[in-house]
């Protein structure tokens, strides 16, 4: 995985010589839709499924000339939204037990497979029936069309942000769940007829329904193209294939939003935004501690190391921190800007976080967790009427040199006013 990661680094030479022209007329479609003869259902008609509306729903629409841009509850690099969500439902009043495809633009679900004695549980280590199972996939061409090889990073981060949205939606309804990376992805990809254009990355399972072991899907799922046109990318497919060698523990009992009231969390989901500029104003140390509550501990539990540059937090020494320990004291606003590919966001923020991890196993999953934690930061920040933005482009080697680390740099996340 490390060799593939290194091929996506950005350094000064690459940055100065890279082609910047993108023909947006060729952008592939950023959503998947099954033909009209598949049955679709409005989520809002089923009280038990109300939480689904908070996963990736449209929270605002902006119009530029004749073009309308739909803003979702979860962000995506370049607004390309490579993720798709499939949900297996059992025993929901008024709905057939089956596998459904989630359509965020319409706030609907489409039945794509009716269950009998089969089900998604067959592909997991624990095969007893579950009430809900979410499967998150990526249609990689939506991102590689623009970002080429570096798309592998954005695919993982986008998956993490969407995973964070699902976590928040389930938290609103106090639905217990597990995050599982260790299911049989290869077999499921085959049985969903993805043909490598789309692949599963992570699953979320909720509530054991019955102690009945299920069988393999009795028929393959009908293949529907995730884009209006697609181009194979051997580099990304090799990267995904290598990721299947990793193993990662099931994650449960996450407490990162427990202190937020239901109304507060719902409001944060509705108004979360990625911003393009900060006012360059200070925030209080209390706000910093609230936003990052339990974040550093959670990250370190899974071998993620978070550095941050304090640009403008009152009552804290300015400088570079590793987790919560000051490493270098000083005003590093200009440094933060340069590290972030000269993007002013990183230096104008109150603080900018840098997610990193050692060059060891579990690269695939730790990258996803970086996006997951960042989605939590988005929500906590929104409750304080502060703003934030993820930054996926940066000078890899310059970050390592400044931090004095050999860690891979995964993601930058800027927070401020």
Secondary-structure blueprint of this entry?
Elements: H1 2-6, H2 12-17, E1 40-42, H3 53-56, E2 58-64, E3 67-72, E4 83-89, E5 98-103, E6 108-114, E7 128-139, H4 141-147, H5 151-172, E8 178-180, H6 185-191, E9 198-213, H7 234-243, E10 251-252, H8 262-271, H9 285-291, H10 295-301, E11 304-310, E12 319-322, E13 325-329, H11 333-339, H12 345-348, E14 351-357, H13 363-382, E15 387-391, H14 396-403, E16 408-416
Antiparallel strand pairs: 1-6, 2-3, 4-5, 4-7, 5-6, 7-9, 8-9, 8-10, 11-12, 11-14, 12-13, 14-16, 15-16
What does this structure look like?
The protein is of the alpha+beta class. The chain has 14 helices and 16 strands. It has helices at 2-6, 12-17, 53-56, 141-147, 151-172, 185-191, 234-243, 262-271, 285-291, 295-301, 333-339, 345-348, 363-382, 396-403; strands spanning 40-42, 58-64, 67-72, 83-89, 98-103, 108-114, 128-139, 178-180, 198-213, 251-252, 304-310, 319-322, 325-329, 351-357, 387-391, 408-416. It has an eight-stranded antiparallel β-sheet. A six-stranded antiparallel β-sheet has the order 13-12-11-14-16-15, with helices on both faces. A hairpin with an 8-residue loop joins strand 4 and strand 5 (98-103). Helix 4 crosses helix 5, helix 5 (151-172) packs across helix 13 and helix 8 (262-271) crosses helix 13 (363-382). The two termini are 37 Å apart. 46% of the residues are buried.
